[in-house]
Amino acid sequence: MLEILLSQVVSGLVLGGLYVLIAIGLSVIFGLLGIVNFAHGTFFTLGAYLALTLYQYFGWPAVIFSPILVGAIGMVAERLLIRRLYDKEPLISLIVTFALALLIEASVRLIYGGIGQPFSPPPLLSGFLIWGPILITKYRFAVLLTTAVLLLGLWLFLEKTPFGRILRAGSRDPEMVGLLGINLPRVLTWVFGLGCAISGIAGVLAAPLWTITPAMATNAIMPAFVVVAIGGLGSFAGAVIAGLLVGVVIALTIQFYPAASGAVMYLFMALMLLVRPRGLLGERWERFE
Amino acid sequence: MKPVNTGLLLARRKVLLGAAAGSLAAPFIARAADPIKIGLLLAKTGQIAAQTEYLANGSYLALEQRNNMIMGQPAELVWLDEPSPQAATQNMQKLVQENKVCAVLGGSLSSNALAEEATAAQLKVPFVCDNAAATEISGKNCNRYTFRLNTPVAVQSRMLAPFALTYGKKWYHITASYAFGQDILRSSRELLKAAGGTEVGSDEVPLNTADFSSFILKIRQAKPDVVVGGLSAGDLSTFLKQWNELGMKGKIPFVEIAIGDTDIWAVGPEAATGTFTKMWEHSNPDNPPEERAFAAAYLKKHGKPAADKAWMGWITARSLFESIDAAKSLDGMAIVEGLEAWKAPAGNASYSYRKFDHQMLVRNLAVSVKPNITDKWDYFDVKATLPENPADIDKVFGTQEEVGCKMG
Fold this sequence. Notes:
CATH architecture of chain A: Orthogonal Bundle
CATH class of the largest domain in chain B: Alpha Beta
CATH superfamily of the largest domain in chain B: Response regulator
Largest sheet of chain A: 2 strands, antiparallel
CATH architecture of the largest domain in chain B: 3-Layer(aba) Sandwich
Structural class of chain B: alpha/beta
Number of strands of chain A: 2
CATH topology of the largest domain in chain B: Rossmann fold
Largest interface: A-B, 46 and 42 residues
Distance between the termini of chain B: 78 Å
Distance between the termini of chain A: 48 Å
CATH topology of chain A: ABC transporter involved in vitamin B12 uptake, BtuC
Number of domains of chain A: 1
Shape of chain A: globular
Oligomer: heterodimer
Helix content of chain B: 40-55%
Radius of gyration of chain A: 19 Å
Low-confidence stretches of chain B: 1-12, 18-31
Mean pLDDT of chain A: 88
Helix content of chain A: 55-70%
Strand order of the largest sheet of chain B: 8-7-9-10-11-14-15
Number of helices of chain B: 14
Number of helices of chain A: 11
Number of domains of chain B: 2
Radius of gyration of chain B: 25 Å
Strand order of the largest sheet of chain A: 1-2
Largest sheet of chain B: 7 strands, mixed
């Protein structure tokens, strides 16, 4: 029994890692821009589709350009659409980003068609790793490792670089940052692009595991919102802990009561909101209260 | 006394009368020029949309092949979404009450179709279900206004069971936790029990599950002879993809009823595996001439082969259009009677809806994934056409007592 439980925990960590990546982008955008981005899942979809296209035309190495392209598309969306929502009611940003999600999904459907696209892990990462009782495929291990490196890099970027300090300051007091001569609108464009690019990375990593369809965002966006709600809106560390917890809880539920595996994360979120409405590491922010 | 110009007065009256008559007649003239409308109730988003795209393509092609005419009048399809059973019901009402459709084609998921068939009976509008396979649709939930193409789950399970039993009697079930999957689980358990086999494990999977690795780990540990699936559309594709990724392809056989071409195309040649039942195969040399012509027309129009779902959309639409022609009326009951009498040749057999349950009697194919896939549209070897003797088809689909349909 211990053998299968350990394997389930590792499997849950891989799933949780993907949820963390999607949720971190969502959390960064909300924390710094104050926008609840309903279109976030479709940037995950774009990441998967662009990876597939780049692979088909240029081979595996070109796949790394997919998140960069997704980030660029996100920046264009910010300049044309999202920027106009900063001083508007939250409800308007929900409606507009939801419309953006529908537009992106419909565009993907128009270009690629509605049917799923086949895509497998690279041959280099086929096969298994077995450590004692734990079994994991090489590709899933690579996903886990990539997620950990990315999260560490992102944390260092936000905490230790001058640009990261501007971002954090801008999220708390945008007016003061502007008075210091910093072009905050340009910074916000980069932030939105960064959030979308991270979601794109999750899409690239998930593409060989999930079925690539225009609707694949459905499987990504809801867990991401749940993870952000459990971790605390805008909290980096909260999203990481919550994402991994959600992944492991789902995996263990599959082991013991599979029919509830789709609902368990919502139950987890409801319990968290009852006990601690701000989430695990959510802070009290004057700007949003 | 001034002479009265009665001629002018009469002429003016005639003009006024004519104008009045014209204005009264105008709506009728306009109505006569309105096209005949047929509702299409199929999901436009979600995982099932991969299948519904082909169902809709098939129905549109069936209409185009008639030059968009029914009963000698222009006709059109009005397509509304079916995102959930409740919304599907609302959209069916909208199709009938606002769009004034005379009949509805659709029902992409069993859960939706079960709600839609009840609404069809309530609104007294003919409903031809082109995809859903839940047994109850033409079983205990049947009604006079509902007709169904897909072979019921219980019948398909009976067709597939002998293939599963060739692998052994220790089965593991992995089924979707909604009407379709629950129906498969129920039928498969009965068949396994009758064969004296054992269920070594069973998991009900929520719809739209993205990661099956935890389920696959459980199956790996249970070591069954065969896995009997009951997953649908995108979920089946994801499962098979991860089944291969976790090294299970070729180790434990996988069987499932009612696979669609779009499900397996999404898996890819590297990961595809399994034995399935299927309604139609574009490359089957035994297809009758009408279906070969349909396959050629589809290929010409869309630049890719017709999936089985395209044929399902085409044959149901064709049955409806030809029945309206035969009925020479848009009245709901007249169309129902037309559908009850409809018959079309199918090689050495024929297609028709059975009188007592409105189930179309179609022989199914047992197909297995080819060992080497060289054409990205051609994944299957046809192993058998079931039932092997066409004369047995009525028996295989069950008697009225076995089916449990009472239309009243």
